[in-house]
Amino acid sequence: MAVTETTTISWGSRISGSFKGILVGLGLFIAGFPLLFWNEGRTVTATKTNEEGAASVVEAEVGSIDPAQEGALIHLIGEATTDAVLKDDEYGVSTTAFRLSRKVEMYQWVENTETHEEKKLGGKIERTTKYTYSKEWCQNAVNSDSFKESGHINPPARRALGSDSIYAATAKLGVRNLTASQIKSISGSETLVMKYNPVTTNEFFEVTNVPEPKIGDIRVTFTVVKSPKEITVVAAQKGDSFMAYTTKGTKKSISHVMSGAVDAAGVFAAAERGNMMMAWILRLVGFLMMYIGVKMVLAPLQVLADVVPFIGSIVGFGTSLVAFVVAAPCALVTIAIAWFFYRPVLSCILLAIAGGIIYFVWSKKKAKTAAAVANAPTAA
User: Which of 4, 8, 97, 302 is deepest in the core (most CB within 10 A)?
Assistant: First the structure.
C-alpha cells in the first residue's frame, strides 16, 4: 500500500525562498558566537565545581549521623528502602517501589513519507514523495483524516495515551531520609506487568505475549523501580536528610544519586565525563549553527547556478567549502577567546608551549638550511 505524489518547485520560488533564508542564516551564524562562548564558561565552571567537590567530600556512615558533618558534602553507599505502596487504581496495579510508571499505547495506522528531489534544467526541482502505511503501537493519537490514501482509519483513543509515573513519598538510606528529587533519581527500572485490551472488549488482562493486535487495541505497560536498591549518594548533610551542597568557589550545587556502589572519585569522574560530553555536543551545535548559517547566506548563488544542474552542483560544493572555511575558524577563535577569558593562565601556558614548539621547529629548519648552504660547493 503506497501513494506517490509529485510536485514541482519553480526556479523563481526557489530564488525567493533562498533570499528570505539569508536573514535566518545570519541569525544562526551570529547566535553561534554567544553559544560557544557561554558553553566554554559553563564547562570551566562545571569542571571547577567537580574539582572542588572531589576535594571537599568526606565519607559518612550509613547507619549513624555525625553532627560534626552537618552541612558538609558527604558520600554514602547503601541500600535505599521504602515502605510506600504505589497504586494505579485505574488498572488495578500496586507494588512497593520507589517509582511505578505506566505507558499506554494504541495500535494505529501510521503514515510514513520518503521524499526524493531531482533538479531539472531551468532551475526547477521535481519532488517525489512516497507515502506508505504501517501498523504501530503509539503513545500519541494519530490523526488519520489527513492521510494521503483513504482506508487507513484510526478510531478515537479509548484511553488516555502517553506515560505517567507515581513516586514514593518517603524513602530511606540507612537512618537518613531521601529527598523527593533523590527518590526520583533512583534508576534501574524493570517491567512489572503488561495489560492488554482488545478493541472488541473493555476488559484488560495480563499477558506475556500480545496476540495479533487489531487497530484500536490498547496496550498498557508498567515498569517499576523496586525496593530495596543499592545506591550511592553525594550531597550535603542536613539533619537526618540531605540537601544540595553549594561550592564556595563557583557557587554551584552538587547533588548526585547513582545506582550501585561507586566511590567518591568515581562519582565526580562520571560527573566530569558528562560535563565534557555536553561541552563537545554544544561545540558541535555552535559550529553547525555557523556552518548552516553561512550556507543559507550563500544559498542564492547555488539556486541561480541551478539553471544548469551540473553547474549548480559545483557551486553547491563550493559554497559548502566556503561555509566550512568560514565557520571552523570562527568557532575555534571564539572557543580560544573564551578560554582566555575564563582560564587566562592555562591559555598563556598552552600558547607558550605552542610557541616553543614552533620556535624549535623553525630553529631546526634554519640550522639545516644554514648547514646546507655551508656545505654547498663553491664556484672555482
Answer: 97
